[in-house]
Design goal:
With about 190 residues, the chain is mainly alpha-helical. Helix content is about 85%, strand content about 0%. It has one domain. The protein contains nine helices and no strands. The longest helix is centred in the last third of the chain and has 57 residues. InterPro entries: DedA_domain, VTT_dom. One of its GO terms (cellular component) is plasma membrane. Pfam families: VTT_dom.
Length: about 190
């Protein structure tokens, strides 16, 4: 059994825990402003384990993610000097500079796309605050982008439900390594 399969099995057990929605909300909030692990890793197995609650979980994930995004925005407004060394040390300086330049060109649309994409959303929330992007469009774009992403994940996996679980487990190693490869490609593309 590979590393991603073991991780998947552990997350699936956590997803069935009675306090799992609290963990999901906390993870979603933290990921939008400072934590590196996306909430999809909990939302997906929770949607498979409880397809009847998948849309509720997507809503929870969206709202807590946008709330965390507001914290990221606040960090950008008042504490950019404090977090910039962390951004540089974690190798996200290129992504941060790219986010700043994209805000100049596309504004609202950058937040919308960043909220939906696998690009680290926290970089965009901090950059939006640092550049004093208008608050209301930031929140609306975050709600739309994050909501579209999380409702899509939850809906697809709830549709598959428990019958998708064996398929996911069988291919988890491939999915995990392809995800790592995709992240490496994105990081390399951003840094070049």
């Amino acid at each position: 059994m590979g590393v991603f399969t073991r991780l998947y099995d552990a997350v699936l057990r956590w997803a069935r825990h009675r306090r799992a929605p609290w963990f999901l909300g906390a993870l979603s909030f933290a990921e939008s402003s400072f934590f590196p692990i996306p909430p999809d890793v909990m939302l997906a197995p929770m949607s498979v384990a409880r397809p009847d609650r998948a849309l509720h979980l997507a809503g929870l994930t969206t709202l807590t993610s946008v709330a965390g995004g507001l914290l990221g925005y606040l960090i950008g407004v008042v504490g950019l000097e404090l977090v910039m060394p962390v951004i540089v040390d974690t190798g996200h300086a290129g992504a941060y500079e790219m986010a700043r330049s994209w805000f100049v060109d596309w504004g609202f649309w950058v937040v919308l796309v960043a909220g939906f994409s696998p690009i680290p959303y926290k970089i965009f929330t901090i950059a939006a605050g640092a550049m004093a992007i208008a608050w209301l469009p930031f929140v609306l774009a975050s709600l739309l982008g994050r909501g579209a992403r999380f409702y899509l994940v939850a809906s697809v996996l709830a549709w598959g439900g428990p019958r998708a679980e064996p398929w996911l487990r069988r291919y988890m190693e491939r999915i995990g390594w392809l995800t790592v490869l995709a992240l490496v490609v994105v990081v390399l593309a951003v840094s070049l």
